[in-house]
Amino acid sequence: RRSSTLAARDDGAADGNGGGSEPFQLSIGATEIADGTANFADNSLPIPFATGIYELGGTVGTIGTGTLAPASVELDGRVDEYGSVAVDGELDILSPATQSQLDVTFRNVAMPRLSPYTAKFAGRRIAAGRLDLELSYSVADGVLNASNEIVIDQLELGEPVESADALDLPLGLAIALLKDSQGRIEVDIPVSGDLSDPQFSIGGVVAKAVRNLLVGVVAAPFKILAGLVG
Hints:
By secondary structure, this protein is α+β, with helices and mostly antiparallel strands. It is 19% helix and 48% strand. A hairpin with a 6-residue loop joins strand 3 and strand 4 (49-60).
């Protein structure tokens, strides 16, 4: 369901001497979304990934070429069977790399559904676990600064999967060291970079940050032991 206004105007007119015209102006009023769906698929992985957001509702503010102010965004919905997602912030939809700030919160997402990603980067499926994720992404003049606060509850690895991109690390040990006494893992992975850089990739930056985290965790106890024995 959408309740919005649409206005477009071109006040200029070319004259007989080939003169130009005023820039085309576009304005779309606030849009309401009710009982919507959003589907996402990624076929670049060893195991194709697909998921959906259901019962999506909320509002997107006015979008127009005549203003520099980003549109407000407020959405929430259901992820798969038991999870939820909420989106809040501001987005320049016509030029998102110029000025945008979005906070996205996922709750109670089933980790086994994410096995296509762990298979690619870790060479293992996920057998069990629940994920809470708080993302805060800010873009100003093409520069991204973001945080990814991750809480994983009762994570269990599944069977190995062949992947050329998999990290050569003792993942079982790393996970055991990261878990607290309640079986929870809490980490914050910052991401930053210049979106205009052709070498920049959010996926690549996140993968590198995760690898550095795991390497540091795995190495830590051995460094402590080395210090004890000289």
